[in-house]
Design goal:
Length: 185
Amino acid sequence: MVLTALVVGLLSLFQLSIISVVSTVSLAVMCFTISVRIYYQLLYILNWGDGEHPFKSYLDLNISFSGEQADFYMQKAISLTLSAVDTLRRLFFVENLFESLKFLFLMYLVTYLGGLCNGLTVLIISVIALFSLPLFYERRQDQVDGFIGKIQARIDNVKDFLRRLTQGGGPPPDTTPGGAKPKTQ
């Protein structure tokens, strides 16, 4: 139900502006809620209902913040924003060459992805993946874990190679215990 609503909403943004989509959804919700309210009022007038407001539980919800909660969430938002700005500063001004190269490669991949499709398509694919990947993983957990293990091993090899390359090259580290050399005949 939620997946369908999200995908239909996102697909409608392909044809209509966001203002049109929001106003149309708002009109649909208002038509529904007014109809239900009038229906319950009519039942009360005919003595077939108790006259209680149908959306009373939603109207009674407390959605206000105390001063402490507002301060907590604001501090958290400021902390996350400053952390993101600090990370971007370190990446753009090349504090760590390896991390900046990874960021450069990621941005190149994002521009390539942007050439293939627009952001809304990526968002729709992400929503569908959000709902379908957990089910896929649950059904094929052993196969997925093995595949991810192989990918992680290759990524670790590439990271090790690039790290050695940025530190001046050199042979790979000796993996034998204690650095013992095998006997040659």
